Amino acid sequence: MPFSFILEAQDTGSAARAGRMVAGAAPGTAGVREVPTPAFMPVGTAGSVKTLTPDELRAAGCDILLANTYHLSLRPGVDTVRRMGGLHEFMGWPGAILTDSGGFQVMSLSPLRKVTDAGVEFRSHLDGSRAVLTPEDAVRIQDALGADIAMSLDELVEAGAAAPAVREAVDRTLDWAARGLAERERLRGAGRGTMALFGINQGGADPAERRRCFERLGELPFDGFALGGLWVGEGRTLGLDMVEHDCGAFPSDRPRYLMGVGHPVDVIEAVARGADLFDCVLPTRNARRGTVFISTGRLVVKNAVYAHDPRPLDPACDCYTCRRFSRAYLRHLFAAGELLGMRLASIHAVHHMLQLVRRAREAILAGCFAAFRKQSLEAFRSGDTIVPAPPSGDGPRAPTSKRRTTGAGLERPARA
Amino acid sequence: MPFSFILEAQDTGSAARAGRMVAGAAPGTAGVREVPTPAFMPVGTAGSVKTLTPDELRAAGCDILLANTYHLSLRPGVDTVRRMGGLHEFMGWPGAILTDSGGFQVMSLSPLRKVTDAGVEFRSHLDGSRAVLTPEDAVRIQDALGADIAMSLDELVEAGAAAPAVREAVDRTLDWAARGLAERERLRGAGRGTMALFGINQGGADPAERRRCFERLGELPFDGFALGGLWVGEGRTLGLDMVEHDCGAFPSDRPRYLMGVGHPVDVIEAVARGADLFDCVLPTRNARRGTVFISTGRLVVKNAVYAHDPRPLDPACDCYTCRRFSRAYLRHLFAAGELLGMRLASIHAVHHMLQLVRRAREAILAGCFAAFRKQSLEAFRSGDTIVPAPPSGDGPRAPTSKRRTTGAGLERPARA
Questions:
Q1: B412, A85: Cβ pair inside 8 Å?
Q2: Which residues touch B78 (CB under 8 Å, ≥6 apart)?
Q3: Which residues of A touch B88 (CB under 8 A)?
Q4: B251 Cα distance to chain centroid
Q5: Neighbours of B371 (CB within 10 A)
Q6: What stretch of H or E contains B18?
Q7: Per-residue pLDDT tens for A399-415?
Q8: Taking the model in full, what pTM does it have?
Q9: Optimal mutation site among B187, B340, B412, interface A, most CBs of chain A within 10 A
């Protein structure tokens, strides 16, 4: 069964929409994988969403995750993943997987890389070995990994790149897009290549170049389209303008993937402009460092002000971490360098983003997206509860004798 | 309700026994905590069994864990733990908790310590601050942490210490034991001190000194007795001789705790000699470094020979890790430095030890401990499955082209 996208609802007051991606079962894998949109993809760089099990991702509401082709190709290698039954089987993940093309990681991690019309030449950041990644390689590798959705190889330019460089990157991206599609056709002729393939729109923050790129990209039979080259330093306002611009040009019957965006405010605003799919390492990377997004802002739980705070990370959250543990405990775990702290914060971080897009979807379906958008953004900007706990009254170094009789007053409130 | 120990069965062919510790509910905590014995305690040094949640410990069959008084006193501090409702509430652990006295950690971790009759003077290994730990402090601190079972402060000597040093340590341990009990009585007079208190037998590897120690220790109203000063370099044979000797002297109506022992062979042999309770960081510390005990020996899963091994860590194990993931995946996680590898290996390590003591208990109750002991030891020494997977036939670096058509043959076998 081929990949499909069903548009389920369109908001009337904005470009926000709710849909459903259905990924056909790949050979040797079980069943069809459905992804309601808007959707957020936690990032499983090297075959695991750092610190988390597949069951924790499922419990947090995850339907699809992103895995990095570049990392997996270098280690454990595509051959190992294939021999172990493909990426789903290897990592024990029953949901959908989107793989990137590897192009972005080559550009950002390799100590040496050279872009030619043929492809990208680079050195491994692990052992320095030299390799070439062509648009055809990118498609073949993602097929071998067993991705449900593969990405076309594109060329990126940095924010503020000169017009000729942007133009050249657009031309090359378009050429590579066609070559990637041709390679998938070849694979399909050999009984493989069942995965969806998404094209990536480029052109930086230049609306004319992005339009020129999509005029040709949109003619190609991609299963979805991605917004590339954004959130690389151009700023939120300009970035969101580009999202509005691209989504206005993209066909409504195919999913739209805004790459590398995961700040709650950005996600809400991009959904309002018509984006369906997101990924970002930010929530989980921050979490491992002791900072999480909660419904009312950004909480640095490793800070000493939370040493005696009996509240959960987010009183409005029902994730495992927030149902079971206090800020005081998490603060202690980070202070003591306990890995459980990273885990518990990551569980919240993933759950928070997944619930945010789920609630956006429900609001779109219920016809109240405008209210959801306003309330979510207001709450996020409020900073509520991101202050020391009020009941304690004294500092974290209060003498034991003073506290002995008041412990009961600090009990964590019962939670539903 | 006070602490109690019920002896449920005594093996006829050895000194092995099955029992049940019942810890009375401490003020502010919920319900009674039961611990069937023999029991193994995972170590939660700083308020977490490294990388694991309370639910994972429960799922592995854990009824009781050990927490380190020294670490928790320094960070987050006893005051914080009390203010947050005690250690159970703080770390979200509903089962029983045994705390050590802090004495062993002071001796092994502090950069400077001086033992006098009064107690131990030491510097914090975290900030160098100077502190004194007396037998009374040890009991007060463990009470404040909310332990179900507290340990008396004892003095350790190193393996091979001269006879006068051993004698002096025994005398001091006996003096401190009486002072600790008196302090608990004082606490009980003030409505606290509900926890059980265990005395620790010392005397190194000298049977006469251990007997002399217990002649006085055994007269004191401790709720249980521990075997101290063993597995510090004296060797397994001598260590097990001391276990046999001590357990022969200890009263049968109180639990016996062999401190710091967690190698599967040691645990089985010590159970056969009458020990009821064990703790050790070895299984989980090894696991975080990529080595686990399985039923057939010691598996170094991070080794390259497992790169394509589709089998679980232990084909005979039903832990979460063994039900869901292959050695190949775990090997990859360790090679890539992914924290999930530490977690999954830790889950297996804890589960393996807990199931080992549970099976020993079931065998004692069923009257077939001799057969269990023989089979377990034979299996552990067999080394079965601790070799590269047979179906593959070629090394982990086989070229892709050779493997493409044989992937199906490498599928992991279905598991119950």
A1: yes
A2: A400, B72, B141, B144, B145
A3: none
A4: 22
A5: 12
A6: strand B17-23
A7: 333 333 322 322 233 33
A8: 0.92
A9: B340
